[in-house]
Design brief:
15% helix; 338 residues; alpha/beta; 10-stranded parallel β-sheet
């Protein structure tokens, strides 16, 4: 299945997955991070996936399977394992489904879920308890909406989309016009469009557009607690870690990676394959292929030089005071000599 090379007992049997440091008989584990190599010599797992180029310091008791990339291989095996789990089917009698909604074949709708007028739910979708799908929402095939998911009216969801618990798709964008007596709300009459194979983490929010649509393109993966503002366009296969915030009308390219708590200003364009470090602040347009950290963002070498200098500031301040004191004493001495 994985195209690997077996070293050890070819008849080893596994029936579960386990972390290498918590290994037990009958489990398959993996080793990809060199920091965990020492666990390989003491693990009780029956089989361990390792990279082809791993060099052993001494023999191991477990059976090894050498593969090109252990991390990618275990991901594929976990997908096979997940696909073997039976999917829920059927409509719970406590669910509410509008008579005007269209529900595909082999769907599951849990207790207290709400499906509004003119909703279209594709084949094989799973809507868990307390999920809300508003009027006119269009959903493709094979989607999974976990408990507490909220999809506002009119939004469009592609195929094989996963929305985790508490995520909100299509809430109003943050649009207000200042006036003499306060802030006047700008109606948000657009929608959110989520394309195929997107996964949205728990309590992540994607705001509907003022006009037109906010877009989350195919293959995007958003972690928990991510904020995507109105009228943004998140490019295909881009990934964002927890607590990333993207301000309104910003366009993010394809295959970008954003670390936790990174923030993007509004009305900017980020190119393709841009890597942005954790807690970075992006305030302007970025070209393709950049790797940036810091706030405002800059190249890693420049950032680390600044950090190193910043840590020396107390010593430099003391040196400056001593130099000022010496100059003052020299001036007094020169004045005295004159």
């Amino acid at each position: 299945m994985v195209g690997g090379k077996v070293e050890g007992n070819p008849d080893a049997i596994v029936n579960s997955f386990c972390k290498i440091e918590e290994g037990k008989e009958g489990a398959i584990s993996f080793l990809s991070n060199p920091k965990y190599t020492h666990f390989l010599y003491e693990t009780k797992s029956s089989v361990v996936l390792v990279n082809e180029d791993l060099t052993l310091d001494h023999p191991v008791e477990t059976t090894l399977i050498r593969v090109a990339n252990a991390y990618e291989t275990v991901a594929k095996l976990l997908q096979v394992y997940e696909s073997m789990k039976p999917r829920k089917k059927g409509i719970d009698p406590l669910a509410f489904i509008s008579s005007k909604a269209k529900i595909g074949n082999d769907c599951y709708v849990g207790a207290f879920a709400y499906i509004g007028d003119d909703v279209e739910l594709g084949d094989g979708c799973q809507v868990f308890p307390h999920a809300y799908i508003g009027e006119g929402v269009k959903v493709g095939k094979g989607c999974t909406f976990y408990p507490g998911v909220t999809i506002y009216h009119g939004c469009k969801i592609g195929n094989n989309v996963i929305l985790h618990a508490g995520s909100v798709v299509g809430a109003d964008g943050f649009g207000f016009a200042p006036g003499p007596d306060g802030y006047d709300k700008i109606p948000q009459i657009g929608i959110v469009t989520i394309e195929d194979n997107v996964e949205i983490g728990a309590n992540t929010c994607i705001d509907r557009s003022t006009m037109g649509s906010t877009y989350v393109r195919k293959g995007v993966k958003l972690d928990n607690l991510v904020q995507i503002a109105h009228n943004t366009d998140i490019g295909a296969n881009t990934v964002m870690s927890a607590q990333v915030g993207v301000a309104g009308s910003t366009k993010v390219g394809q295959w970008c990676m954003l670390g936790g708590q990174a923030g993007l200003a509004g009305h900017i364009t980020v190119g393709n394959k841009v890597n942005i470090g954790a807690q970075a602040g992006v305030i302007g347009n970025l070209k393709d292929g950049l790797t940036l950290i810091g706030s405002p963002t800059q190249e890693p070498k420049a950032f680390f030089r600044e950090v190193a200098l910043t840590r020396r500031l107390p010593d430099m301040q003391q040196q400056l005071r001593e130099l000022q004191k010496e100059i003052k004493e020299l001036k007094k001495k020169l004045e005295h000599d004159e």
